[in-house]
Amino acid sequence: MNNRHKKGVFMLTVLLFLASCTQKKEQLEVFSIPISNGEVSVKNFNIISTKGQIYIEDNYYLKFQDENIKSINFGIYDKESKLIYSFAQNVDFFRDTDKIEENTGFIIDSSHFRTGDEIKIEVNYTYSDGTKKSFTSNEKLENENE
């Protein structure tokens, strides 16, 4: 799929999501969620929420303090401790891991992702020598629009 087509699909997805929100007269909430322990960070992780759905932007990127990390996975849990999103990736430091690409996000049905809700983020990563590390963070959601 070429870059122009990706941008078109991305824009169409966002427009359909926003149109459905407007028709239902639901308030949009935008959350920028910090995911970091100093060694591993997921930057630009943003979620747009309506009363019954969330749209997860797929423009986040990974930053590492140590080039010996070979894989990472993380999970985002809603206020009911239900897994709403997970991601796993092998790490290739020959690529530019700081590069932001415009990709199409996706929509998930969830009514447990509103301002004031506390969510949980679990991150697991493995070093090239097999050492495994993890961290968990509880985040209280705050609307970026306010």
TrEMBL record:
PROSITE patterns with a match to the protein in the record: PROKAR_LIPOPROTEIN (PS51257)
Superkingdom to which the source organism belongs: Bacteria
Protein name as annotated: Lipoprotein
Protein species of origin: Carnobacterium inhibens
